[in-house]
Amino acid sequence: MGLKTKQAYIDSIRRMKPTAYMFGEKIASVVDNPRLRAGIEATAATYELAQMDEYRDLFVTQSPLIDEPVNRFTLPPMSIEDLVARVKINRTLGNWVGTCHQRCTGLDCLAALSIVTYDIDQKYKTDYFKRFKEFLKHVQRNDLTCNAGVTDVKGDRSLGPHDQPDRDMYLHLVERRDDGIVVRGAKAHQTGSLSSHEIIVLPTRAMKKGDEDYALAFAIPNDTPGLIHVVGRSSLDTRELDGCDIGNTLFSKYCPTVIFDDVFVPWERVFMCGEVEFAADMVVKFSSYHRQSHGGCKSGKIDCMTGAALTMMEYNGTEKAGHLKQKVIDMIHRAETLYGCSLAASYEGKVQPSGTYFIDTVLANASKIHEGREMAEATRLMVDVCGGFVADLPSDRDIANPEVGHLIKKYLKGKEGIPVENRMKMFRLVEKMAMESADTISDIHGGGSPEAHRVTILRETDLEAKKKAAKRLAGIDEGQPSRK
Amino acid sequence: MGLKTKQAYIDSIRRMKPTAYMFGEKIASVVDNPRLRAGIEATAATYELAQMDEYRDLFVTQSPLIDEPVNRFTLPPMSIEDLVARVKINRTLGNWVGTCHQRCTGLDCLAALSIVTYDIDQKYKTDYFKRFKEFLKHVQRNDLTCNAGVTDVKGDRSLGPHDQPDRDMYLHLVERRDDGIVVRGAKAHQTGSLSSHEIIVLPTRAMKKGDEDYALAFAIPNDTPGLIHVVGRSSLDTRELDGCDIGNTLFSKYCPTVIFDDVFVPWERVFMCGEVEFAADMVVKFSSYHRQSHGGCKSGKIDCMTGAALTMMEYNGTEKAGHLKQKVIDMIHRAETLYGCSLAASYEGKVQPSGTYFIDTVLANASKIHEGREMAEATRLMVDVCGGFVADLPSDRDIANPEVGHLIKKYLKGKEGIPVENRMKMFRLVEKMAMESADTISDIHGGGSPEAHRVTILRETDLEAKKKAAKRLAGIDEGQPSRK
Amino acid sequence: MGLKTKQAYIDSIRRMKPTAYMFGEKIASVVDNPRLRAGIEATAATYELAQMDEYRDLFVTQSPLIDEPVNRFTLPPMSIEDLVARVKINRTLGNWVGTCHQRCTGLDCLAALSIVTYDIDQKYKTDYFKRFKEFLKHVQRNDLTCNAGVTDVKGDRSLGPHDQPDRDMYLHLVERRDDGIVVRGAKAHQTGSLSSHEIIVLPTRAMKKGDEDYALAFAIPNDTPGLIHVVGRSSLDTRELDGCDIGNTLFSKYCPTVIFDDVFVPWERVFMCGEVEFAADMVVKFSSYHRQSHGGCKSGKIDCMTGAALTMMEYNGTEKAGHLKQKVIDMIHRAETLYGCSLAASYEGKVQPSGTYFIDTVLANASKIHEGREMAEATRLMVDVCGGFVADLPSDRDIANPEVGHLIKKYLKGKEGIPVENRMKMFRLVEKMAMESADTISDIHGGGSPEAHRVTILRETDLEAKKKAAKRLAGIDEGQPSRK
Amino acid sequence: MGLKTKQAYIDSIRRMKPTAYMFGEKIASVVDNPRLRAGIEATAATYELAQMDEYRDLFVTQSPLIDEPVNRFTLPPMSIEDLVARVKINRTLGNWVGTCHQRCTGLDCLAALSIVTYDIDQKYKTDYFKRFKEFLKHVQRNDLTCNAGVTDVKGDRSLGPHDQPDRDMYLHLVERRDDGIVVRGAKAHQTGSLSSHEIIVLPTRAMKKGDEDYALAFAIPNDTPGLIHVVGRSSLDTRELDGCDIGNTLFSKYCPTVIFDDVFVPWERVFMCGEVEFAADMVVKFSSYHRQSHGGCKSGKIDCMTGAALTMMEYNGTEKAGHLKQKVIDMIHRAETLYGCSLAASYEGKVQPSGTYFIDTVLANASKIHEGREMAEATRLMVDVCGGFVADLPSDRDIANPEVGHLIKKYLKGKEGIPVENRMKMFRLVEKMAMESADTISDIHGGGSPEAHRVTILRETDLEAKKKAAKRLAGIDEGQPSRK
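Above: the input entities. Below: the C-alpha cells describing the complete assembly.
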C-alpha cells in the first residue's frame, strides 16, 4: 500500500467493473476506451507528478492519520500550509494537463466531510466522524481517487426536493435496513466518475424539515451494483475515439451522469442521514473548497493557453505585434487574478472544531466569479492571437492523403524554419482548449452556478461594519434624534 | 431564369463537380454529404425565404441592371434602402438558421467590385467595370451564390506578399495568356465555397510596388479545374455525419481551405490585374461591407440564442429568477448594439462614383468590434442561463438503448408538463450554438482580425476636428505665441 | 418674433424674475451670476449655432404648425428626418460645449406631449391636444427654451405616490379652481431650469387608481409665483464663481431642485389632469426620447474628450505610444456606439396617431445602457492618457504669484515648442470634463436610472418570436404530445 | 521618543516651517489651514489607530533595529508576517479614512531603500546601507512620517533625463560638495508632503549611461531651504476651506508639486548618487511595494463606499431591490479582488540579500491593474445605487436659510424615520468619495501609469515555461527535425 505509481493506478481502475454506457453502447473496458482513457490519463498525472523529483515535495505530505506519506489529494487540510498546497498543486496540474485532472472534487468532499461529520456528532452524538476517519484511512492507505456526487438532476428548479412531482429528482433514501441504506436518484456532471475508485455523495443544496430522506452523505465504490454511469457527449468527443486530430495529445475530460438505481450503502459508509440542518453546511463547505480548487487549476490552464498563444505568435511571425502582446498580458492578468484570490483564501483560512482548516469563503468565491467570466475572455484572447485556423484546420487525414497532403503542408506553413506540422499541432491544441465543452463549461457551472458564488459573497460579508464606517465619516450619529 | 426556388438551387449545386476533400477522402457528391448538406441548406434558406410571403418583399427587389426581380444577395446596393435591407435580411436569416447562411460574403464582393472596378477604369481606361457588369448580369439572371476568396494563407505574417520565401503564400499570377491568366495560391476559411456557384477572388491586403502579380480580382465557377476544396475540421463536425445529436436540426456551417493549383481564369472574368494601389481599396470596401453584414446575421443569431435561453428557463422552472432575466437583458442588449451600429452604418451611407452606395465605415467597424467581444459574452450568458448539461448531455443513442434509455429520460426531465425530449433538444441546440467552432470563431476572425477593425476606426475618424473642439473650450489659441 | 439671436435669448432670460437660491443666498440676477451664466451660455449655443452658416441647415427647419422657420429644439419630430436631426444637433452641440447644453429635455417633453395629449383626447374627448398646440405655437414663435420637470423627489422609493407618509413627495394637485389648478411638490435635478423660459411638468412614473391627483402635465414660466429654484452643489461649482481655474472656459452646467410651493397653473396650460392610465405612456415617451437625445450629446462630449486626449499626447510627447492610441480607439468606439444606436433608433422610428414620429425604444435604450457604463470608461481612458496632473494641477493664481509662478511654468512644461499655458489649460479642461459632477452623473442617472433602461429593453422586445426561432431549429414541435 | 500620539504628531508637524503655496498665497500655518488639516488628520489616523486597543496589535510591532515597539509605517518588512500586515493596516485605514491616509508611500520608499542600498554597497563598496540604517533609526525612534519624492515632472515624455532641452525636468545633482550635494528639479503629485516630516527622493525611472547626475536617492526634512510645496487644485478643494458641504467630515487628501530649487542634502542623507544601473531596481522595488499598498487601502475605500451604498438603500427605501443588491455584490467583489491579489503578493514574498522581504511583483501588479479599472467601476456602481443627488444636492447653507431651509428638508427626506440630515450627509460623503480628484485619480496614476503595471507583468512572468507546457501537450518535440 501507500503511494501508487501511475501504472498501479491505471491497473487498479482496470480492475473495477463499473456499469457504463456511451453513445448507446455498454463499455466493456473503461481503460481501453480511448476517450475515457484520455480522462484517466489526466487523473493519472496526479500520481505521476507525485513521484517525479521536481514535484514530489509539493504533492506528497505526511498524513497525521495514518502516519505515512500520502498524496495531498487524499488529505483534508490540517494547516495553512496544506490549504496553500491545494492551490499550487492544482495550478501545476492545470498547466501539466491543459484541461481538468478530475481529482480535486474528491478531496473537496473529504475536506467538507472532515468538518461537518464532526459537527453533526457534536449535536446528535452520532459517530459519523469516526466512520469517516475509517473511510479516510482506506483512501489514504490505498491512494484512492474519489469523485464528488453532489449535483442532483433537480427536475423543476422552482421546487425543493420533497415538492418534486417525481421525488427521485433529488437522490434520496428509499429503504433503511439493519446493514445499511438503499438510495435512488441521479447525479449529473460527474467529472471523472469512471477514473475514481470511490463515489462520495453529498447533498446538493440546503434542506429543511420534510427533506430528511434527502439529507444524505456516503461513499461507495464506482462499480457498486445499481450504479450506472452514462457518459455524456462533449463537443470534441469523437476525436479521441477516431485517434485523429486530437489536439491535446495526452489528456482529456469526460463527464457522466451517474444514476443510482436503488443502490445499497452499508452503514459504515454513511456519513449523514437525515440531519437536514447540516445539509447547507455540507454543500457550502464542499463548494467553497471546490471553487478555490478552480482558482488553481484554471490559472494553470491559462498558463498553458498563454504558452500556446506565445508559441503561435512565433510560428505566425507576429511575435513583435504590440496589440498581441497586450492580449497576452490580459491573459496572464486573468491567470494571476484567479490564482491570487485563491491563494489568499488559503492563507486566510481558519481551523474548524474538527481540526480541519477551512478557507476564506469570500476570497474563494471572488476567485470563482472571475473564473466564470474571465476564462471565456482568456479563451477568446487566445483565439484572437492565434488566428482563424482554430475554426477549420484541415484534418491530419487530409495531410496523409497523397493527392492533397503536400499542398496542405505547403500552404499551412507559417514562418520559415518552423515545421508546418508543429504549427498545425499547436492549432489543434488551441482548438481543444477553446472548444472542448466538458472543460470550458465547467468554467461557468463548476462548483455551482455563477449566481451562487455571488450570493455567497453577499451573505459572508460583514455589511454592518461597512455601513458603520461610512456613517462615521459622514458624521451620522444614529444615537441622536433627528434634528428635523 | 430569374429567382431560383430552394430546390432549383440545390439541384444546381448538385450539377457542379468540384474537387473536394474531407477527413482525407475525396467527396463524391457534395449535396449528399450530410455535413456539407447542412451548410448548403443554410444557403438554401436565402432562396426559400425569398419565396415566402412573409419575407419576399424584404428579400426581393428589382434590379436596374437586368430589369427583373432579383434576390438582394445578387444586388450591389444602389440606394440607402438597399443598404438598410442588407442588415435586415441578414438579421432575419441569422435568426432563421441560427448559424451562418454563407451567402453574404459573395454580395460583399460584388458590392466592392462594383465600386472599385469603376475607379480603376477611370484611372487606367481599363474595362473592368464593363466586364464586372456582364458577370453581375449572369449572377442576377441565374440567381447565383458567390463566395469570397479573400483571405490568403499568408505564410510569415511579418513579411509582405513578394517578400515571402515561398511566393505562393499569397495568390498570384503565374502566367499571362492571350485568353486569360493562370493563378496559384490558396485562400483559407472559405465559408460555403462548395455551396457557391462562383468563387470571387479579391486581394487580402493593401499592396505596393513589387506586388503587381498579387493584385488580382476575378471570378470562376467552384468546379474550375485546379481548384481544390479541403474542408477543415470543426468542433462538432462528426455530428451531422453520424446523424445523431446534431443540435441545430436544420442547418450548419463548414469552411474549406481552397487551393488554386494553377487555375486558368479567362480575361472576361478578370476584374483587376496588377493595379497595386487599388488593392487596399478593394479589401477595405469588401471588409467594411462584410463587417456590417455581420452586424445583421450575428444579432439574428443572438436572437435565436436568447430564445433558447428563455425556453430553457421555462423548461427548468427558472423563468422567474431575477438574475437570469438580467442575463437575458444583457443578451438582448448585445444583439441590439450590433444591429443598431450596423443599421446606422447603412443609413449614413454615401453614393460612390459608380453609383453604388457604400456604408459608413466607422459605424460598421464599431459594430464589428462589439461582435468580436460580445458574441463570446452572449454565448457565455446563454450557457450560464441554460445550465451544465450543455457540457455533457447523454446521447440520443443512450436514450434509444433499452437498458438505460428510460432512466435517462426519467432523470433529465425538467418542469412538469415539458416533454423531456424537448428539453434535451434545446440543450443540444445550445451546445451547437455555443460550441461549434466554424461559426463561433468567425465572431472573432470574420471580416479580418479584431485589430484591423480598430485600426480602421482610428484611420477613418477626423481626429483634427476633435482636437480643435477641445482647444476651443480650453481657451487655447494656437495662433498666439507662448506667454512664457 | 421668430428665431432669436444668442443675445436676444440672454436678454429674454434677464427679463425673467425667478426665485432662486444658491449657497444659502437669494440670487438677484441669474444672468450675472457667473456659475449660472456658464450654464446659460451652453443653452445660448443652441441659438448661436442656429444662426451660423455652418450649422443653420441642421438646426433650423420649417414648422408646419406656424409655417415659419424654427429652431429644431421647439419642434416635435414630424418625420424620420426630424428624428435623425435630433441626434445630429445633439452630437454637434455636445462637442461644441463639452458638457450638457440643457435644451434637449424641453424638446423631449414637447414631443411626448404631442403624442399623448392626442391619445388622451381620443379616449376622453378632452381638449389637451388643442391646448398643447397653442402652447407649442407660443414656444415656436418666441423660440423659447423649455425645461423638463419630470423627476419627483419621491420620498420612500418603496411606496407609490399616494402611499407616501407625506403626500407632497410627488407633485400633486391641491386645488381645482375655475381658472386653473394649484399644485404642490418638488422636482429634482432640474438641469437648466433658470436658463429656460418655461417649465414643463410631466408625471415621473406609471400611476394607478388612487393616484389621480398626481397624474398631471402642464407648463408654466420659470418665474411663476411659488416656484423656487434651489441650485445644488456640484463638484467644481466654485470655480466659475471665483473666475479662476475654470477648465471649460466657455460653458458649464447646473442643476436646481425646483420646489412648487402651491403654484397656480391656468387651465390653458394644463395638458393632463387625472388620467392615471396615461401617466406611464407620458413618462415612457419622454424618457425614451430623452435617452436617445443622450446618444447624441454624450457622443459629442466624447469627441471633445478624445480631442483633449489627442492634444495632450502631443503636448506630453507621447503621441506615438501604441498603448495610448489603443485607448483613443476605445474612446472613439464608445462615442460611435452611443451615436450608432441612437441614430438607428431614429431611422427606425414610427409615426404615431397624432402625426408625431416616435423612435425605436429598444435601440434608444440600448444606447443609454452603453452611456451609463461607457461614459465612465471613456472618462477613465481620457485621464489615463493625459496624466496625473488632472488630480492636482497648481492654480492659475500660483502662476500669477511672482515668487513661484516662474518655477511652476518652468516645471509644468511638456514638449519643446508647446506653450506651458496651453498644456495647463488642457489639463484644466480634462479635469472639468472628468470631475464635474453635474454633467458626469447625468451619464448614469439622466433619463431614469440604469435599471429602468434595462427593464424597458426586456419589456419592448418580442420574446416569443425568439423562442419560436430556437424551437424550430431544435426540432421542437410543441403541437405534438410528449413522446414520454 | 517612541510611538507618537495623534496629538504629538500634529504638534510635530506644527513645528515644521515648510515653504508652501496654495491658490497663489503663501501658507502661514499648515496645520491651521482647513484643507491641509483634513489631509494631516488622515495621516494622524495612522498614529491614532496604533494606540487604540482594537488595532494596536496590527499596527505596532517590535523593531529589530532599535529594539523598541514601532509603528509599522516605519518598518521595512522583515518577514512574511510583516508583508501581510502591510495590506491589512492599509485596508483598515482605507476604510477608516475613506480616502488616502498618505503614509504608505514613505514606508514603500524605506522598504525599497533597505534592499537596494545594500545591493549597491555589495557592488561598489559604498556605505549607503549604513547611512540608510541610521536614517531609519531616526525615523523609527521619532515615529516619523515620510513622503515619496519619486515622480519627476518629466518634460517631453519621449526623451530620457539627459536628453531634455531643459535638463531640470528630472531632478538632478547640480553641485557636489564636501559636506553633501545640491539638487534641482521638481517632483509632482507629492501626496501629503506637508503632512510628512521627511521627503525621501528616489529616481522615477530606469537610467543609463549619461544619466549619472539623475541617479539620486536621499532624504531631507520637508522644510529644508529651497524646497517649495505648491498645493495643486483638486475638484472639491474649496469645501474644507469654506467649512461647508465637506462630505467626509473628518479626512481629505491634497497633493503638492514639490520644487527643489537648489536644495542642499548632507552626505549622511544621500543613499544613491550616480549608480545608474540601480535606478531601475530602486523604482521597480518602490513601485511594486506601492502598487501592493494600494491593494489594501483601495479595498478599504471600497468597503466604505459599499457601506455608503447600503446605507443609502436603507434611507431611500430600496434595500430590497434585487438589481441594487447585485451592484453591491459587484462592489464587494472588486474590493476582495484587490485585497486577495495584494495579500497573495505578500504571502508569496521572498527575502532579499539585505534581509528585507519583497513581495511577488506579478501578483502585486495584478492587483494594481484591477485597481486602475475597477475603482472607477466601483465608484460608478455606488453612484448608481445611491441616486442622482450625488450630482446636485443643495448646500447646507440653503438648509440654514430660513426662507427655504424647511422646504429643502421637507423634500429631501427619504424613508420615514430616517432624519433628512442623515440622508443629506450620506449623499455628501458619496459625492466626496466619487468626485474628489486627488483621491480618485490616484486609482489610475498612483504607483505609475496603468501601462507600467502591464509591462511589469509581462516582464516578470516566465513565458518560456508556458510555451513549453503547450508544446508538450500539442506533441511538439522541438529537438526533432521537421518531417517536411
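Note for the figure: The two ends of chain A are 78 Å apart (CA to CA).
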